[in-house]
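Hi F.,

I've been meaning to write this up properly since the lab meeting, where we talked about keeping a consistent format for the predictions we share between groups. The idea is simple: the sequence comes first, exactly as it goes in, then the structure tokens exactly as they come out, then a line or two of notes. No screenshots and no reformatting. I'm using this chain as the first example so we have something concrete to point to.
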Amino acid sequence: MEAKSSAREARLFVGGFFVLFLLLNVVLVACAAIGQIANKKSVELLPADSSPALRLLIFVIGLAMSWLVGQWLYKLLIKGEIPVSESVSTAFVFAFYLILTFMGVAFFGVLSWLWLAILLLILLVVSLFALWRVVGIWFVLGAIVFSIVAAWLTFYLLG
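Output, unedited:
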């Protein structure tokens, strides 16, 4: 009974983290696209004259946090008796989502918005294949549709 409980808890954490990280990245891409496509001033996360060292520091902190979150999630999934192959791929997907989030925050407005969108699309395809066994294909597809609606709303309301 406890094994089912810990497996269910691990799957709930994975589902919640997936929706959270996906929404963060999609809203970040939508805000970046507003500045370029709508030719309006986009949301400014860091001032344009911020030091490159500060941006690199934010990125390095993001790398460290993503490694720690990935390691913690891997241990949680193993404790929940999720197979090792699925635990590893799930932990890597979330580590890359967090890296993409911090990379977007650190270099927002400095680099083109298109690289963020391309990396997010690649990560979406990877997460579709990596997470469907852990949380289910309908949950993954529902989260993607929900994030597309959130991106459209962000673009519509801020643009």
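Notes:
Residues 85 and 130 are 10 Å apart (CA to CA).
The chain has a mean pLDDT of 85.

If this format works for you, I'll send the rest the same way.

G.
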